[in-house]
Every structure is written in C-alpha cells, then in structure tokens.
Amino acid sequence: MRDIPIDEVDHLDRAVVAIRTDYPPGHRIPPHRHRRAQFLYSATGSMRVETADGTWTIPTRRAVLVPPETGHQVFTTTVSTRSLYIEPKAVPWFPRRCQVVEVSALLRELLNEAVGVPELYSPRGRDAAVIGLILHEIRRSAPVRLDLPLPKHERLRALCESFLDAPDIHEPVTAWASRLHVSERTLNRIFTAETGLSFARWRQRACVLHSLSLLSDGRPIAGIAASLGYESPAAFSTMFTRLLGSSPRDYRAASAL
Q1: Residues 20, 121: one domain?
Q2: How far is CA 204 from the centre of its chain?
Q3: In the chain, what are the helix, strand and coil shares in percent, each to the nearest 5?
Q4: The model's pTM
Q5: Smaller CB count within 10 Å for the chain: N or C?
Q6: Which helix (H) or strand (E) covers residue 151, if one does?
Q7: CATH at residue 53
C-alpha cells in the first residue's frame, strides 16, 4: 500500500499493515497516536519524532519503534518511509518508549517487499512468511542512542523546540535565563531536573543530532560545522565523535552501506 492513512486500514484483520508514504520537504505530521505499534523506517531523507518526553532523530536507513498509544509528531525532510503498523499482541517485546534502531540490509529488502503485499495477504504462504521474518528481524535490530530529552516545563520546552529548528553551539545560557526570568544557576538546575542533562550538554547533543539530517542530505562537513556555529570542522568532528563514537565522515560512509 502507498500513501494511505493508517486510519483507513487499521481495521484489517492482519497482524501487520505495511504502508509506503512519501513526504515533501519540511513536512510536519501533527500530534497523533496509533492503536497499533509502529515501526517507522526512513528509506530516504531523515525525520525527527517528538513525544511528550523527548525527540528521536531518524537518519536515512534507520527506523524508530513507536509503542502503541504513544502521542507523537513527526518532522521530515524530503523523505520516503516504510511504516509497519503492528497489533500489540504480536510484539509483546516492543519497547515502552520510542527507540531508534539500525536496519539491516536484509530488513531493508523485506520492508520493500512488505509494502507490496496485498492488504489481506494470505495468513499462510510467502507474504505471511515475509511479514513473520520482518518481525524477527525487528526484534534483533540493534538500538542506537539518537534521542534527546525534552523538559515538561512549558516555557523551557518552548525554548528547546525553537532551538531545535536552528541550533547553535554558542547559544548563550544567559539568553535563556533572561527569557525565563531566572538566574543561570536556576536554569541549569531546572534543566538537569527535567532532562538529566546540563544546558551545555543538552545543547551539544542537540547540535550533533541535528547534523545527522544534514549529513544524510549530503551537505559538506565544513558547511555543517559552520551552520552550527563551530569554529572549525575539526571542532565539530571532535564533539560528534565524542557523542556518537565515530567521525561525521565515517558515520556518513556507514549509513550509505
């Protein structure tokens, strides 16, 4: 199935409903929730999924597991997705919180097959076998830490969401404290209590995660570093490697495999 809202086919008596959807650049899917669990794969482009307690960055060829009844919204680049909507009883092992996972070459091919099966595929035979193997592959997919916590404090969350649209590694804590009419010390205390991170560490992580979509789009590393406010590509690469365990260049090469 292609470009069909899940609400139109949620009633289907099948454990998995597979849908391909293509989104234009800068598209936002407003807050919603699904009765089924969702496996949301970015075949091309990148996405950011936001829930009440955080955001998850999904670069090209990664996927996010969204538990049933989890309220979320999605921000996309020019992206083509493969979504599996799965009956909760079929995946009792699904995480209780969103989780980004690696997608193997085998799983990528299976997902392309899945969106081509009939809506009411036979519960026996090849189509059912493809769906069954997909669930096995999802269960063994390696998790990736591409999440960023968001505070519940309403005014602070609004500042965080605004920052995510245009992150800057040198965004001053004094500006945030001034907007909230608190001291820098109080701001950091609130930040740590609400997110588990200091303002500086949250800002660093937000910048690195934002860079993943730019890397997926093929932007030059020097240009990405400059757009985030780093003094040099080397400074950006050092922070990227510290947080994600590989350099931007190596990360992009691995994503293309």
Answers
A1: yes
A2: 17
A3: 40, 25, 35
A4: 0.92
A5: C
A6: none
A7: 2.60.120.280
